[in-house]
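chain below, 234 aa
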Amino acid sequence: MKSRSLIESFNYAVSGIIYTLKTERNMRIHFVISIIVILLSLFFDFSRGELLLLFFTISLVFITEMINTAIERTIDLITEDFHPLARIAKDVAAGGVLIAAINSLIVGYLLFFDRLNPYTNRILFKIKKSPVHLTFVALVLVILSTIGIKTKHYRGRGTPFQGGIVSGHTAVSFCVATIIAFEANNILVSTLAFFMAVLVGESRIEGKIHTLFEVISGALLGIIIGVLVFQVIG
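prediction:
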């Protein structure tokens, strides 16, 4: 029972993210920019502390935008008439988003300015080849891409992680299998990794959560991102 409650809470949370992405233009802008920034991070020698700051800043913008949306919807639910306090509440929430956005610009400036300085005669630095860094970025990109695709095609039936045009579980499992194949450089280990990924996809079909097409789409998404990050970029 506790497991089911935890899963339901997770699905409700994802529904909130998808609702904000579908209804708020600013959230979609933040989402696209975050993907671009994460991709750019591959080209710079960021320390773990700098990466931590980067992901915390991105998360802060998302969180404040979602809180702002929640406050706006709550006020609209309570009253449809103009009220000075309602306006103040919405303005304060929007101010929180503005502060988070300004903070993200400052952090981005401090992290990227020296590396993009034209006087260095190099726009792009040597790509960081750390498998840990590449693995983390690949998984984040798979998750963000899956959420983005689900947001665009979600029709309000079921829960966001039950169904959808791509299988998120399959995408992540095949991305992990692709990463293992690149890092292990061993045919047996690689075969076992992809075998486990296939089992994940099969379980989604067996459970009637996804169709064969949705599972194949998820597998291709995971493999393509894994290959792009480790083979083409790394």
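The chain has two domains: 1-128, 129-234. Confidence is low (pLDDT under 50) at residues 119-128.
thats it, cya
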